[in-house]
């Protein structure tokens, strides 16, 4: 099979880090904070690598949008088994305002340019929790989508996707080319070992600008304020039902 | 020094050091214990024994990878999925 897979990976604050809001409430503290690949993106890369190991796809291209530092994330994807990387350079204010709409436009343009047959993305990023990029990319390309995938199989020229939805599991069959977004139970991502990281240094990462792809990254959204969630109040214990009624009346609840 | 095995031991040490960076109790905690563990066995000369220690080290590598994976999986499951 000569299929080419495009995998989007996002550099986010590491999942184990305690997030702090900036004093000026314009965002969260990112300077000096540990960053790593979005966990759902790791699952997406792993799925692409497994497809390649089964010889169902020929080439995996890892894509990331952002400043210089996202190259680390692309290198991790290369160490996990991707063949080459594409770094879409977006920095400064453009990067702060970069959201699913802009990324999906970039992914769509790249998919056409690289003649990709399959795009695998993480279902959402753990920093913005948008859960939109995959869906928007599919819409822009007019490709079918298999989102929240917990199982992916290739049957002929069709993709069988088992989706994890609220009611349980839904199995769909979609034609390629398609967009798939990875859910938690799709697979267990491999650890990028030291020898693989060394080998990945030889793989190429191409540099592109959004303008080269004809994409305008201006955002139509403006972040007004970022706040911490309200502190949980301690609960109050009461002795009798009468006390409970009194307390509820005091609080104006009844 | 058992020459061919020396390279394997050094690579095992480097792999463990690399993995230890993400250790929940801290990279320093891990590194101190790693050095102590390797220093304790530095006078072993028998190739069989060395191979056994290397495979023990590789077992620890697998344990660490499993630990990291489970931590991440459980954290994400708790954050994103309704607990029944």
Automatic annotation (TrEMBL), chain A:
It comes from the Eukaryota. Gene3D superfamilies: HUPs. Pfam families: ETF. GO terms for biological process: amino acid catabolic process; fatty acid beta-oxidation using acyl-CoA dehydrogenase. Keywords: Electron transport, Mitochondrion, Transport. It is found in: Mitochondrion matrix. One of its GO terms (molecular function) is electron transfer activity. GO terms for cellular component: electron transfer flavoprotein complex; mitochondrial matrix. Its main location: mitochondrion. CDD domains: ETF_beta. Residues 25-217 form the Electron transfer flavoprotein alpha/beta-subunit N-terminal domain. Belongs to the ETF beta-subunit/FixA family. The electron transfer flavoprotein serves as a specific electron acceptor for several dehydrogenases, including five acyl-CoA dehydrogenases, glutaryl-CoA and sarcosine dehydrogenase. It transfers the electrons to the main mitochondrial respiratory chain via ETF-ubiquinone oxidoreductase (ETF dehydrogenase). Heterodimer of an alpha and a beta subunit. Heterodimer composed of ETFA and ETFB. Identified in a complex that contains ETFA, ETFB and ETFRF1. Interacts with ACADM. This is Electron transfer flavoprotein subunit beta. It comes from Culter alburnus. The lineage of its organism: Eukaryota, Metazoa, Chordata, Craniata, Vertebrata.
UniProtKB/TrEMBL annotation, chain B:
One of its GO terms (biological process) is negative regulation of oxidative phosphorylation. GO terms for cellular component: mitochondrion. It comes from the Eukaryota. Residues 8-60 form the Complex 1 LYR protein domain. Belongs to the complex I LYR family. This is Complex 1 LYR protein domain-containing protein. It comes from Culter alburnus (Topmouth culter).
């Amino acid at each position: 099979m000569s299929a080419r897979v495009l995998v989007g990976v996002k550099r986010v604050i590491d999942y184990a880090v305690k997030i702090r809001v900036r004093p000026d409430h314009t965002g969260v503290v990112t300077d000096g904070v540990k960053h790593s690949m979005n966990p759902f993106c790791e699952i997406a890369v792993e799925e692409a690598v497994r497809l390649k190991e089964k010889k169902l796809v020929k080439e995996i291209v890892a894509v990331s949008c952002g400043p210089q530092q996202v190259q680390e994330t692309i290198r991790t994807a290369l160490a996990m088994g991707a063949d080459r990387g594409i770094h879409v350079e977006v920095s400064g204010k453009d990067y702060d305002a970069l959201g699913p709409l802009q990324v999906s436009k970039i992914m769509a343009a790249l998919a056409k340019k690289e003649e990709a047959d399959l795009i695998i993305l993480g279902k959402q990023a753990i920093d913005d929790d948008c859960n939109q990029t995959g869906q928007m990319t599919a819409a822009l390309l007019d490709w079918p989508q298999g989102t929240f995938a917990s199982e992916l199989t290739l049957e002929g020229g069709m993709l069988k996707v088992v989706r994890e939805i609220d009611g349980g599991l839904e199995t769909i069959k979609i034609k390629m080319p398609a967009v798939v977004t990875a859910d938690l139970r799709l697979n267990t991502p491999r650890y990028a070992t030291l020898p693989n990281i060394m080998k990945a240094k030889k793989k190429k990462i191409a540099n592109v600008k959004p303008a080269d792809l004809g994409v305008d990254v201006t955002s139509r959204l403006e972040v007004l304020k970022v706040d911490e969630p309200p502190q949980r109040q301690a609960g109050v214990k009461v002795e009798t039902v009468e006390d409970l009624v009194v307390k509820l009346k005091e609080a104006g609840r009844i | 020094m058992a020459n061919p095995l020396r390279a394997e031991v050094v690579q095992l040490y480097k792999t463990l050091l690399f993995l230890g960076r993400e250790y929940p109790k801290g990279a320093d905690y891990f590194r101190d214990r790693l050095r102590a563990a390797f220093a304790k066995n530095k006078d072993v000369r028998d190739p069989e024994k060395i191979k056994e220690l290397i495979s023990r080290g590789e077992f620890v590598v697998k344990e660490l990878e499993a630990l990291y994976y489970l931590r991440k999986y459980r954290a994400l499951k708790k954050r994103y999925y309704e607990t029944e």
